[in-house]
Design a protein that fits this description.
Structural class: alpha/beta
Number of strands: 14
CATH architecture of the largest domain: Alpha-Beta Complex
Number of helices: 10
Largest sheet: 7 strands, mixed
Length: about 300
């Protein structure tokens, strides 16, 4: 099978290669990949450059959220069947979706939303699960909560704004002025310029949940805005090994969850939740999605690699 994998160099560059097509073991699904969602910082992450046991890893195939069709299933798989359109994610240390086929646990997949194209479906699994788990499992969202989403037009942020608004929260979002109207359409009641006057100087009210998708010093600057006994959350990889306890406690990594994916798919098919594609590149040009600026970007939503050239 054809793949795009990390070159065996110090540069974050992908090269085309051919690997054997994998076979599913017990509890696994072989997916014929349609499209892959892109997280631009992934090429620098620890699982991309190291194995689970800590040895250096070379030639990793990135992108761990995808849409596709079930090609085969291993023993014990009952939630999906060959020929079924699915979406999902797989383990960060496994080979990802910039490949014609991949393996994933059945527990991390779900039937794809019927109202989305394969390209659109590839933008959902990691982004929507991260927003869902951040708000409910880590933020304990309740109706009437005040929620601040840093990066409300990004791949995760746009879901966080929608889900919080949908569940009765009062949402403030930060982003570029060009995305102000977009974030309001998602449900943000108040929008702020992320590069303008510091948000901690502009905002006077306290928040029940602050959800940081930007990184840097954003979460540290946000602590003063969080109500006592409520929650600050960050998902950016630069905080994974934070020394400061509050930052370390705010960080989490999304976990696969088939049941939550099914709930998200249902909300999408009922038009309660929307996803957005920033731009699409073919598999051979995957480098452009990670390190360049693909043509036709909308500057909100998620970049996608069309692995199957026939999908739209």
């Amino acid at each position: 099978m054809k793949v795009m994998r990390l070159a065996d160099t110090q540069s974050a560059r992908l090269v085309e290669a051919t690997l054997p097509q994998p076979k599913p073991g017990p509890g696994q699904v072989l997916v014929r990949v349609s499209a892959a969602g892109v997280i631009r910082t992934e090429l620098e992450w620890y699982p991309t450059t190291h194995t689970k046991t800590g040895e250096p890893r070379s030639g990793a195939v990135p992108s761990h959220e995808f849409s596709g069709v079930v090609a085969a299933v291993g023993d014990g798989v009952t939630n999906v069947a060959p020929g079924q359109a699915i979406f999902g994610m797989n383990d960060w240390f496994e080979e990802g979706a910039l490949a014609e086929y991949l393996l994933a646990p059945a527990s991390s997949l779900a039937p794809a939303p019927t109202t989305l194209t394969p390209i659109e479906a590839a933008t959902v699994p990691i982004s929507a699960l991260t927003a869902w788990q951040g708000l409910f499992e880590h933020g304990h969202l309740h109706p009437g909560d005040r929620v601040l989403v840093h990066g409300g037009a990004g791949g995760v942020g746009l879901f966080a704004v929608q889900i919080a608004h949908m569940h009765g929260a009062l949402v403030t979002a930060t982003g570029a002025p060009r995305n102000f109207d977009f974030m309001r359409q998602l449900g943000a009641r108040e929008v702020l310029d992320s590069r303008g006057r510091p948000f901690e100087e502009v905002l006077t009210d306290k928040f029940d949940i602050v959800f940081d998708t930007i990184g840097g010093d954003t979460i540290a600057r946000s602590f003063a805005l969080v109500k006592p006994e409520r929650f600050a959350i960050t998902i950016t990889s630069d905080h994974e090994d934070a020394v400061e306890p509050r930052v370390r406690n705010a960080f989490f990594i999304v976990a696969p969850n088939s049941r939550q994916l099914m709930e998200i798919a249902g909300m999408i098919d009922m038009a309660k939740l929307r996803t957005y594609v920033d731009a699409v590149v073919p598999l051979a040009e995957a480098n452009e999605a990670y390190t360049g600026s693909p043509a036709g970007r909308r500057n909100h939503g998620k970049l996608v690699v069309a692995v199957d050239p026939n999908v739209r």
